[in-house]
Amino acid sequence: MHSRRLSKKLFRLYYGNSISRVSIYVVAFALVLVLGGFMGLNLSGSIFKGETDDGQIVGRIGEHSILPTTDVEWIYEFSNCKHVQYDFGAKNYVGYTAKELEEQIKNCKVEELNAETATIRVKIDEYCPLHYLLMYVDTDFLCVFRTDSKTYISKVVYEIEFDMTNFDEAMLEQLKNGIVFDTLDAINSYLESVET
After folding, report:
1. What is the pLDDT of residues 32-42, one digit of tens each?
2. Is residue 52 situated within a structural domain?
3. How far apart are CA 185 and CA 126, in angstroms?
4. Which of 25, 30, 45, 78 has its CA 20 to 30 A from that of 188?
5. For all residues of the chain together, what is the average pLDDT?
6. For residues 180 and 117, what is the distance between their CA atoms, to the nearest angstrom?
7. Residues 119, 72: one domain?
């Protein structure tokens, strides 16, 4: 008998009556909902913390930056030949502001930058990739330079072995500054005319 009473007491202590058990479940469920909602708001807040409605980065209030979806137009002006070339795309500058672009790219001017479009003008002190530059650079070779169409940096593309005694002093001076040609055939014709 004694053990039976003890079992009933333990049973009641452990399980309680059905009303209090339901109450505990309701309170626990409500607590889980409140905590879950609070955590969800904090989580979504941290995910979207870096953006506002128009896609502008919050950490840079008032400053737009290039987004992956921004239509970017690049205008390259070549000062040596006065030609202009256009290119499109964000390239490796996603996340850059106008100030950062102008600091990063030499002779760069950002004319427009918002979430949808950007226009960036870059002046390059070279001939454009359509030209070849024949130069004498104190070697036994004449060097043919051409501006790379991707990097816009002038590089030696050919070295031509040539008898420099064929050039008079004025021609040699001109070659030290570089003579521009539109084709390699034009360079060959020029050198043939010097040899004759």
Report:
1. 566 666 555 45
2. no
3. 21
4. 78
5. 80
6. 36
7. yes
* 139-160 pLDDT, tens digit each: 778 999 999 998 999 999 999 9
Q: Residue 145: name the closest of 162, 126, 164, 158 by CA.
A: 158
> Final residue of a domain: which of 11, 27, 47?
47
Indicate if 68 and 13 belong to the same structural domain. no
| Residues 155 and 113 occupy one common structural domain | no
Q: What is the tally of structural domains in the chain?
A: 3
The residue written with tokens 């530059």 in the block is 133
Which run of H or E residues covers position 194?
helix 184-195
pLDDT of residue 8: 52
pTM of the model: 0.63
Confidence of residue 195 (pLDDT cuts 50, 70, 90): confident
Q: DSSP for 10-21, please give it.
A: HHHHHH--HHHH
Contacts for 168 with CB less than 8 Å, ≥ 6 apart: none
Q: Which domain holds residue 30?
A: 2-47
Q: Would you say residue 53 lies in a domain?
A: no
- Please check whether residues 32 and 88 belong to one and the same domain: no
Place of tokens 């913390």: 49
User: Is the Cβ–Cβ distance between 123 and 107 less than 8 Å?
Assistant: yes
Distance from CA of residue 174 to its chain's centroid? Answer: 39
- Residue 185 placed within a domain: yes
Using 50, 70 and 90 to split pLDDT, how confident is the model at 115? confident
The C-alpha atoms of residue 191 and residue 175 are separated, in whole angstroms, by 12
Strand, coil or helix: 31 = helix
